Amino acid sequence: MEATKVGIRGFRAGMAEFIAFSTPVAVTRHGQTVGYFIPTQGQADADIVALKKASKTLDWLLAAHSVSAEEVVAEFKTVRKQASPRNKKPKATAA
Fold it and tell me: Residues 33, 49: one domain?
């Protein structure tokens, strides 16, 4: 299987296109191959199956503990707000 050759700038500019390729892409710099991009195919189906299984497990756990998804989200937001160092501004001191 012959790799498509593309310059590094062209590779960056056309990344979305190269992801859809079914063949490897040889990335070149000044005519020399510096690396290969090998797109993967078919993993999306496995990822979707895994996500559906995780979703069913989460639904079961929420039901078993009588907790709603809205309660989990609200608690997450509260904890995140309390833990975030970005929300804490240093106090100004008088000189």
Answer: no
pTM of the model: 0.43
Sign of the torsion angle spanned by Cα atoms 81, 62, 57, 47: negative
The answer to whether position 14 is within a domain reads yes
Identify the DSSP state of 42. Answer: S
* Domain extent at residue 54: 43-84
Residue pLDDT, tens place only, 38-95: 887 766 777 888 889 999 999 998 999 899 999 989 998 998 888 876 655 566 666 5
Q: How many domains does the chain have?
A: 2
DSSP state of 3: P
